[in-house]
Amino acid sequence: MWQNLAAALCLVLVLEGLMPFLAPRRWKRMLVEVSGMSDRQLRVAGLLSMLAGTACLYLIR
Fold first, then answer.
1. Terminal Cα-to-Cα distance of the chain (whole angstroms)
2. For the chain, which ranges sit under pLDDT 50?
3. Number of independent structural domains in the chain
């Protein structure tokens, strides 16, 4: 189980690094836009992201 968790975290790092590598200017603009969002908007976006990830895992497994 720990090996699967470590592999998943490594994949997260790879995916997180794609945008700054492929489109650094767009990534910077996105960070500026996100920094202007309210805490509530960020929480809702985080919740939706977690729910989407959970649903994808459920469908895959």
1. 14
2. none
3. 1
